[in-house]
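In response to the reviewer comment on reproducibility (Comment 2.3), we provide here a single inverse folding case reported in full, input and output, so that an independent group could reproduce the run without further information from us. The structure tokens appear first.
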């Protein structure tokens, strides 16, 4: 667009010998062409985004399994370091094999992804999720696409669990 504006200035200024009518015609054509270019960008963007999301939903999700605690009731995430790539689809399968309830809390991570769905039992939840509570023997599935790279904290927010080492790290890479 800058090149187009620059070209317009050169043409208008170099045509000092032209009549006012010709300048008006050139300006009108410039306005029409500018509007057409803008309209092209406006209509193309949603279509391109829709195609990209549709293609993304066709992509098989990479499954990652994370245990919140273990059968020995140790307060830890297994694994406690997770890595994802921006633009890929993942299915995070969370399990709680312990006899204690645990939270999977990662607010900043949740803000850096697009959640397609969270499914627990026979319930499917859509929208922004920041924390999941898993009761003993519970399982949940979180399907998402990372959007923003960074390193994010993970923890169980039940009193004493974070302090006992139930923490982790989630990295999203480009």
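Designed residues, in position order:
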């Amino acid at each position: 667009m800058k090149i187009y504006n620059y070209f317009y200035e050169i043409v208008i200024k170099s045509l000092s010998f032209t009549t006012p009518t010709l300048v008006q015609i050139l300006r009108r054509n410039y306005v029409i062409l500018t509007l057409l270019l803008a309209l092209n960008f406006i209509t193309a963007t949603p279509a391109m985004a829709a195609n990209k999301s549709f293609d993304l939903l066709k992509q098989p999700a990479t499954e990652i399994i994370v245990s919140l605690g273990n059968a020995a009731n140790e307060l830890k995430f297994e694994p406690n370091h997770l890595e994802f790539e921006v633009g890929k689809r993942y299915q995070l399968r969370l399990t709680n094999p312990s006899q204690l309830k645990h939270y999977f809390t990662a607010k900043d991570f949740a803000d850096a992804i697009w959640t397609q769905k969270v499914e627990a039992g026979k319930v499917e939840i859509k929208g922004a999720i920041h924390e999941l509570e898993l009761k003993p023997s519970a399982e949940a599935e979180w399907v998402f696409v990372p959007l923003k790279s960074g390193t994010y904290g993970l923890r169980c927010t039940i009193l004493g669990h974070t302090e006992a080492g139930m923490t982790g790290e989630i990295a999203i890479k480009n």
